[in-house]
Amino acid sequence: MQKKSDVPQGTLALMVLKTLQVLGEQHGYGIARRIEQISGEVLAVNHGTLYPVLLRLEQEGAIASEWGASENNRRARFYKLTRAGHRLLQEETLGWQQTAEIVGRFLNARAEDLA
């Protein structure tokens, strides 16, 4: 059985925004579970890390929230992406794609490429 890893530093906000874009309105536990599922159960979302990220994203205007009832009829805060959140997701996605491309170049570099 593969050990779960924590979400890499600096990626959780992007994962939250993308999850809300794809799935629409979700409560915190639902967001955490979807991130874990999408990762193939490789990542573990620490709820002590998730909720501060949700709060920060809400304070920045990237997401909005309201209280509602969860699937098991418990009171839960539901989050949704705002227009500003859609823009932030586009910017963050571009930045991470560029970073992945640069790291990929290093991982694939050979001595003859650097001469």
TrEMBL record:
Residue intervals of the Transcription regulator PadR N-terminal domain: 17-91
Name of the protein in question: Transcriptional regulator, PadR family
The organism's taxonomic lineage, starting at the top: Bacteria, Pseudomonadati, Acidobacteriota, Terriglobia, Terriglobales
SUPFAM superfamilies: Winged helix' DNA-binding domain
